[in-house]
C-alpha cells in the first residue's frame, strides 16, 4: 500500500518522498509506503486535463492506495489554487483518497521557516535565523543561499532532499500555515486508509512556543 506523490520540480522528486516518509514515521504508520513521484510542470497543475491525467497515471500502479499532489503556489493564493486542483484531482481519483497541498510561494519556504534546525547542514551558517514571517519572503531559495558560504549555490536536487531529511518539522509546523496544510492532509489521508494514528499533529509540535 503506497501513497503516490505528484510533484513539481526535480528537487521535489527527491525531497517529497523523504518528507512524506518522515511524516509517516511521526504518525507511527509503518504499513504505508511512498511510491515513486510523478513529475509535472507548474503549468500542468493549472490544467484540469493534465491534473486528471497525472492522477490516472498514479492509479495505474496496483499498489496505489492514495495520491498526494504538492506544488508551489508562487504568488497566487494557495487556497484558491489548491481548491481548484483538488476538485479536478478528486474527480479523477474516485474512491481513492486524494489531496492537494500548495506550498506558499515555494517548497523551500518550509525549510526557511525552520532554518535554525539546519545549522551546519549544506553549508547553512550557525547563526542563520528565520524571518519573523517566513511565508512573506519571496525567493526562499535565495534566502537559504544567503546563509551559505560565498560561491556556494543552493542546489534543488542535492540540498532540498538533504535539508528535508533533517529540518525540524515541528518548528516548520508552528511557523508555516501551508506546512500545516500538508501535515493535516497526510493525517486525513491516513484516516481514510483506516490507519491507526496517534494524536495528529504530534502534541510536541504544538507545545513549544515559537515566534
Ends distance: 38 Å
- Structure summary, number of beta strands: 5
Percentage beta strand:
5-15%
Q: What is the helix/strand order?
A: EHEEHEHEHHHHHH
Note the main sheet.
5 strands, parallel
Structure, described:
The protein is an alpha/beta fold and 211 residues long. The radius of gyration is 17 Å and the shape is globular. The protein has one domain. The protein is built from nine helices and five strands, in the order E-H-E-E-H-E-H-E-H-H-H-H-H-H. Strands 1, 2, 3, 4 and 5 form a five-stranded parallel beta sheet that branches. Helix 1 (10-26) runs parallel beside helix 6 (156-164). Helix content is 45%, strand content 13%.
Per-chain topology:
Elements: E1 2-8, H1 10-26, E2 33-34, E3 38-40, H2 48-59, E4 64-72, H3 78-93, E5 98-103, H4 108-113, H5 140-146, H6 156-164, H7 169-175, H8 177-192, H9 203-207
Parallel strand pairs: 1-2, 1-3, 1-4, 4-5
Helix pairs in contact: 1-6, 2-3, 7-8
Describe the structure concisely:
The protein has 211 residues and is of the alpha/beta class.
Protein traits:
single chain; alpha/beta; five-stranded parallel β-sheet; 5 strands; 45% helix
